[in-house]
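Researcher: Sequence recovery benchmark, item below. Answer with residues only.
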């Protein structure tokens, strides 16, 4: 299942820069992951300072 970004997101952008398939973009108040593009690699979760990205 694709990763999702929780409301814990602080909009730092670390996850967007780390995503190998560019599935992450800035949303309204937090970053969002395009579930159709996500390859479930976990790179975003590894760099997030607040642990916002998680497997759905």
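Model:
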């Amino acid at each position: 299942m694709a990763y999702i970004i929780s409301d814990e997101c602080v909009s730092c952008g670390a996850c967007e820069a780390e995503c190998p398939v560019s599935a992450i973009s800035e949303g309204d108040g937090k970053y969002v992951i395009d579930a159709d593009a996500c390859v479930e690699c976990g790179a975003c979760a590894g760099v997030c300072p607040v642990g916002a990205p998680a497997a759905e």
